[in-house]
Amino acid sequence: MRSTIASLRPEPQAPEILRKFNEAVALLQQTDRCLLDAVKDELERQDEGHINSIQALMLFYIGGQVLSANELKKRGYYLGSNTSYNIKILVKQNYLKHERSPLDRRAVRLSLTEKGAAVAAIVNVVFEKHATTIQGSGDISEVELTDLIKTLGKLKRFWIEQVLYRR
Predict the structure, then answer these.
(1) Sequence-distant (≥ 6) Cβ neighbours of residue 95 within 8 angstroms
(2) Which of 9, 19, 52, 142 is spaced 20 to 30 Å from 117 by Cα?
(3) How many other β-carbons are positioned within 10 Å of the β-carbon of residue 21?
């Protein structure tokens, strides 16, 4: 009887740092989703609704560069697991051009077409608008953004270390 009663007692409160950590992780995921929604909303307004926001961000980050698919991931321009699928779609829809390297036929170099550059410009306009209005309507100062960048950088490094050194 005693073990049954003990098992019904509520567990002690989780430490405050755990609660804050869980809240921060949830906010990171929600913030990412909100960014994707904001980009998608503008794409639809500009009659580019047939491309998704992740693909549009890929185009934005490629910009005027010529990159390989691996470089997209290494530079943090694309973090999904289906890079080749999105590249295939973007090439097929004439947003990206890809050329095989003359030295290594396995290597493909990616660059924007005019159509891809137009989508990248839409994303750039969204980011410029958000950057200029975030202080007023978003009530976020430049100092707060600087602190956020530092904190997110530390969190990123922490998680990288967890994967690399704590197996």
Answers:
(1) 51, 55, 59, 112, 113, 115, 116, 119
(2) 142
(3) 13
The DSSP letter of residue 49 is: T
Cβ atoms of residues 56 and 119 within 8 Å: yes
- Report how many helices (DSSP H) and strands (DSSP E) the chain contains, helices first: 7, 2
Residue by residue, pLDDT tens for the chain (167 residues) are: 445 555 555 556 678 999 999 999 999 999 999 999 999 999 999 999 889 999 999 999 999 999 888 888 888 777 667 888 889 999 999 999 988 877 777 778 899 999 999 999 999 999 999 999 998 888 999 999 999 999 999 999 999 899 888 65
Backbone angles phi, psi at 51, to 5 degrees: -115, 140
- Find, among 36, 59, 47, the residue nearest to 124 by Cα: 59
H helix intervals, 53-113: 53-62, 69-74, 83-92
* The pair of three-digit structure tokens given for residue 106, joined into one six-digit string: 């396995």
Site of tokens 């929600």: 30
Euclidean distance between CA atoms 134 and 137, whole angstroms: 6
pTM over 0.90: no
